[in-house]
Automatic annotation (TrEMBL):
It comes from Electrophorus electricus. Its EC number is 3.4.19.12. This is Ubiquitin carboxyl-terminal hydrolase 25. PANTHER family: UBIQUITIN CARBOXYL-TERMINAL HYDROLASE, UBIQUITIN CARBOXYL-TERMINAL HYDROLASE 25. Residues 507-520 have a biased composition (Low complexity). Coiled coil: none annotated. CDD domains: Peptidase_C19I, UBA_UBP25, USP25_C.
Length: 1069
């Protein structure tokens, strides 16, 4: 074959593959043979091919031998033909007008072909371009937004500072969570990381690039190196990948947007990396065939063995990411078995010349990094749009690939045949067992053993000779006729066996209103079920046989006992046999010779949402710390296998694994750290980087360090200005440093005990103090001020101790009445209690009689005598600050609950949010430091649910102002609060509430709506589905009014009494 012929053949195959991809994307059909037949029938006309595939009663033509071989022998394509996920911008095929439908399809395909002919850019590349354009546009638009976004950078750089050696996250620059998930998975393959970091562009690149690939791939490769270097050595908690995304965006030109598919992006990324390394390999080769490290790392080979009409063929193909169907399978091995065997394969290893057709795949060479694409999207032909498959699919942390290797072909075929035979036997046993467990011929069926038991109980019941409808009081109908109509028996009198068609079964109320005539001799006591608490003793509780002899009962009981034992034994035998067969199948490949090719799970890429919108994140195994890590954009947290299973297997919520990355467990170089050749020490941080990247990271770290210093300097200036302002306004209420105190400049008391507090509050505290002094004076013989002060302190402390020890309901919280009650319940040190009490009696506003003044002077003198080393003033201030925080939290909670009861949910939300956050901080120090966390969480959760319901109702109106208002409520209030509910996943009710809110908005995806509403919904959903639990920015807390102690206790008591009485258990819905 000449070079020209080879080029033409490759071009023809590539063009055919392009047509197949377009057909698959428009129609959702994944059957390669059916797609090829459609092209053949239509002579390459795509519009006719689509019409052929979308006909309701289209029949698949009988394929000929040439077509089959053409399908089986596509060898130039790098990947297996994949049932690609349908584009979210696919043409709507739900219209009723068939002519309009055909014109739309033809126009779409014509536009696609013209674009390909003019630019040489495929639909796949255009799809990537669309999402990149959307990402950049989202980034630019976010700079203009006035309301705070949940993912915006914190103004405080210390919040963005990396902690020790914690992995670095990636910022979501606008619908790029797919980028973060893939890049993190590849970055944590240390061999791949080294290849990228130590890549050097070919020398000839110093000149202008020769073609479009070089112009695109080499700059992208450099930006990927820069990004990886920052992920290695940056001092930032997360880094911005915008430059790499910009390079991708600049490669193509498009104005549409969609959220990118992980597998398609990974395909394209590996393509570009392979091309970049191929250029370098070709330059470095010395007469040998160049080796491309990307190919050696990610690509393998399999042997396709097939037969058609008795003719065998064998073909070797290369694969990268291996596609697997999810629908109809329960675990990864079932998916692989189905993917490795296509059609009926008996003729492949049968001596007879069969007319059956099929093929098998056998791996001849597995790549070190084995990636499986899980096809979780399917195209709904009836609705004309893609849908996500949420079925559960299990996968193991260690996968043994021996059964799929070509060298084990004969052994595997034997075992597959044995498994097939066992499954056939298993089906028979399960059918037999089902007959025992679901016995009967009607719609309701029961276990046969229970049926026999019920029969035995019926036969053994005490026999009665009367009918359930006999000897019941009869009544004459209205009008004095002599005809007697028996009244309807009550529910208890009828018993379970009362027939439904008893004459006279009229409503009881009607019968009670009718005159009745009854003969005295036949009158029986009437049972009144609503006024009597017992059943008449002569009525049996259960139906029973009317006539049965002892002999009959003995024979029947013997038979029923024997039959029930036989049924139970048969059921146990069947269940045991089924369990043994399951176990035999599970252990079929457990012998050592079939466990020689181990692959360990390295990364799981997860998608949450629906087909047209969602969020991606990744779970990646850290072999050095032996734990799973969750990479969710800027958030990198420690996780567990249990959390991975919950989010990745599917069947639970809307999250499921979309891509699995396994690595060869016998090739440790994939995840081994790099060592210094001289010292033998592990290279960490900047030591892992080549000189150019080391300098690049060092400059970025210096820039971030200057940002930290500028922030600290600005905060110091701000604190100094506030200090000067406070000094100009007057002395601070509390000093954190102990200082000498004289009579002319007394030390200030805590703000809730001092003079500037509200008059009523000061008067309340003053009255308590004077009351203690009066009581002490009445009990004390010696009237000296010192003795009176000591006695008054004892009286007041005894009163407060009694309050602290009372078991009170939430609406009567004594902690609000006095700080000492709060201190006692939280076991404050004795010195703190003594100084606080002395401060109370040293108040200048105590009174104007001489006795109170003298006691005040003694108390102030005692305060002056307390040395700094006797009471730790920092600890003293800390306890009083905690109490101030407690009162502040109480006010937040009180106002939030009052607004909630008034249905002012927008205003109530911030109060409830901050009361929960502050209360949580208090409870972290002790169980009596704050309020009932569950109660606050209930109303915080309920408030968000009501706001979500209100916003969804506004969106459903379809009117522009209401839609904008509803989305504004979601973006500004609900979405920023979702991470607060997810940060503690132990609170299952909060997680369920978040899922309810997300499901409400995801349900709109399947509904007809105006294009502008669809656009707004598509733009909003990724924000709602973002699973990050990190709080990036938030609104300032509301300013609180000042309340006296009496007013605070009264209002808080009223609102707590109403909410605790009316509160129902919260289920998050």
């Amino acid at each position: 074959m000449t070079v020209e012929q080879n080029v033409l053949q490759q071009h023809s195959q590539k063009h055919q593959q392009t047509l197949l991809n377009q057909l698959r994307e428009v129609t959702g059909t994944t059957d390669i043979q059916l797609l090829q037949q459609a092209l053949q029938v239509s002579n390459g006309d795509l519009a006719e091919a689509v019409a052929f595939l979308t006909e309701k009663n289209a029949k698949v033509p009988q394929q000929d031998e040439a077509t089959y071989y053409q399908t089986a022998q596509i060898g130039n394509d790098r990947y297996i033909s994949v049932g690609s996920q349908a584009d979210t911008n696919v043409i709507d095929l739900t219209g009723d007008d068939k002519d309009d439908l055909q014109r739309a399809i033809a126009l779409s395909l014509e536009e696609s072909n013209r674009a390909f002919r003019e630019t040489g850019i495929t639909d796949e590349e255009q799809a990537i371009s669309r999402v990149l354009e959307a990402s950049i546009a989202e980034t630019k638009a976010s700079l203009k937004r006035t309301h705070p976004e949940v993912w915006s950078d914190s103004p405080n750089p210390h919040d963005r500072k990396r902690q020790d050696s914690c992995p670095v996250g990636l910022k979501n620059v606008g619908n790029t969570c797919w980028f973060s998930a893939v890049i993190q998975s590849l970055f944590n393959l240390l061999e791949f990381q080294r290849l990228v970091l130590h890549y050097s562009p070919p020398a000839r690149v110093q000149d202008l690039p020769r073609n479009q690939k070089e112009h695109r791939n080499l700059p992208f490769m450099q930006e990927l190196r820069n990004l990886f270097s920052l992920m290695v050595g940056s001092r930032r908690k997360y880094v911005d990948p915008s430059k790499a995304v910009e390079i991708l965006k600049d490669a193509f030109k498009s104005s549409e947007s969609q959220q990118q598919d992980v597998s398609e992006f990974t395909h394209k990324l590996l393509d570009w990396l392979e091309d970049a390394f191929q250029m370098k390999a070709e330059e470095d080769r010395e007469g040998e065939k160049p080796k491309n490290p990307m190919v050696e790392l990610f690509y393998g080979r399999f042997l396709a063995v097939g037969v058609l009409e008795g003719k065998k063929f064998e073909n070797t193909e290369t694969f990268g990411q291996y596609p697997l169907q999810v629908n109809g399978f329960k675990d990864l091995h079932e998916c692989l078995e189905a993917a490795m065997v296509e059609g009926e394969i008996e003729s492949l290893h049968s001596a007879e010349n069969s007319a059956k057709s099929g093929q098998e795949h056998w791996f001849t060479e597995l790549p070190p990094v084995l990636t499986f694409e899980l096809s979780r999207f399917e195209f709904n032909q009836a609705l004309g749009r893609p849908e996500k498959i949420h079925n559960k699919l299990e996968f193991p942390p260690m996968l043994y690939m021996d059964r799929y290797m070509d060298r084990n072909r004969d052994i595997t075929r034997i075992k597959r045949e044995e498994i097939r035979r066992l499954k056939e036997h298993l089906t028979v046993l399960q059918q037999r067992l089902e007959r025992y467990l679901s016995y009967g011929s009607g719609p309701k069926r029961f276990p046969l053993a229970d049926v026999l038991q019920y029969a035995m109980e019926f036969a053994s019941s005490k026999p009665v000779c009367t009918s359930p409808v006999e000897a019941i009081d009869t009544s004459a109908p209205p009008g004095g006729t002599t005809a007697q109509v028996p009244p309807a028996p009550s529910a208890v009198e009828q018993g379970p066996s009362a027939p439904a068609d008893v004459p006279g079964a009229a409503p009881q109320l009607q019968q009670l209103q009718q005159p009745q005539t009854t003969t005295p001799s036949s009158r029986l006591p009437v049972h009144k079920p609503f006024t009597q608490s017992r059943v008449p003793p002569d009525l049996p509780m259960h139906p029973a046989p009317r006539h049965i002899t002892e002999e009959e009962l003995r024979v029947l009981e013997g038979c029923l006992h024997r039959w029930r034992s036989e049924v139970e034994n048969d059921t146990r035998d069947l269940q045991g046999s089924i369990a043994r067969i399951h176990r035999t199948i599970e252990l079929m490949y457990s012998d050592k010779m079939m466990m020689q090719v181990p692959y360990r799970l390295h990364a799981v890429l997860v998608h949450e949402g629906q087909a047209s919108a969602g969020h991606y994140w990744a779970y990646i195994y850290d072999p050095h710390h032996c734990c799973w890590m969750k990479y969710n954009d800027i958030s990198v947290t420690k996780s567990s296998w249990e959390e991975l299973v919950r989010d990745s297997f599917g069947g639970y919520r809307n999250a499921s694994a979309y891509c699995l990355m396994y690595i060869n467990d016998k090739k440790p170089f994939l995840i081994e750290e790099e060592f210094d050749k001289e010292t033998g020490q592990v290279l960490n941080g900047l030591d892992k980087l080549p000189p150019d990247l080391k300098e690049y990271v060092r400059e970025d770290n210096e820039l971030f360090q200057r940002e930290l210093q500028e922030w600290d300097a600005a905060q110091a200036r701000k604190a100094q200005q506030e200090k000067l302002a406070l000094a100009a306004a007057g002395p601070r209420p509390i000093s954190t440093e102990p200082s000498p105190v004289d009579n002319t400049a007394p030390q200030q008391d805590p703000e809730y005990m001092e003079q500037p507090s509200p008059p009523n509050d000061s008067k309340h505290l003053q009255e308590d103090t004077e009351r203690a002094i009066s009581r002490a004076a009445a009990e004390q013989d010696e009237k000296s001020p010192e003795m009176l002060l000591s006695a008054a302190l004892k009286v007041e402390y005894t009163r407060l101790l009694r309050l602290a020890q009372e078991d009170t309901p939430p609406h009567s919280d004594h902690r609000l009445q006095h700080v000492i009650v709060y201190f006692i319940q939280n076991r404050a040190p004795k010195k703190i209690l003594e100084r606080t009490l002395l401060t109370q009696f040293a108040d200048r506003n105590l009174g104007f009689d001489e006795r109170c003044k003298s006691i005040m002077n003694v108390a102030r003198a005692k305060l002056d005598l307390i040395k700094p080393d006797e009471v730790n003033m920092e600890e003293y201030e800390m306890w009083h600050q905690d109490y101030r925080n407690f009162r502040e939290t109480t006010v937040f909670l009180m106002i939030g609950l009052e607004l909630f009861q008034k249905k002012s949910y927008v205003e109530a939300l911030m109060y409830l949010i901050y009361s929960y956050q502050y209360n949580k901080e208090l409870l972290a120090k002790g169980p009596y430091r704050g309020h009932d966390e569950e109660l606050i969480a209930h109303y915080r959760r309920d408030c968000l649910l009501k706001l979500n319901e209100h916003a969804a109702a506004l969106f459903e109106t379809g009117e522009e102002p209401e839609v904008t208002g509803g989305l504004s409520v979601m973006n500004e209030l609900v979405v920023p609060c979702i991470p607060l509910l997810l940060v503690d996943e132990l609170e299952e009710k909060d997680v369920v509430a978040v899922e309810d809110m997300r499901n409400r908005w995801c349900s709109y995806l399947g509904q007809e709506m105006e294009p502008n509403l669809q656009e707004k919904l598509t733009d909003f959903l990724p924000k709602l589905l973002d699973c990050s639990t990190e709080i990036k920015s938030f609104a300032e807390p509301p300013k609180l009014p000042s309340y006296s102690t009496l007013e605070l206790c009264e209002r808080f008591g009223n609102v707590m009494a109403s909410v605790t009485l009316g509160r129902t258990p919260a289920d998050g819905r």
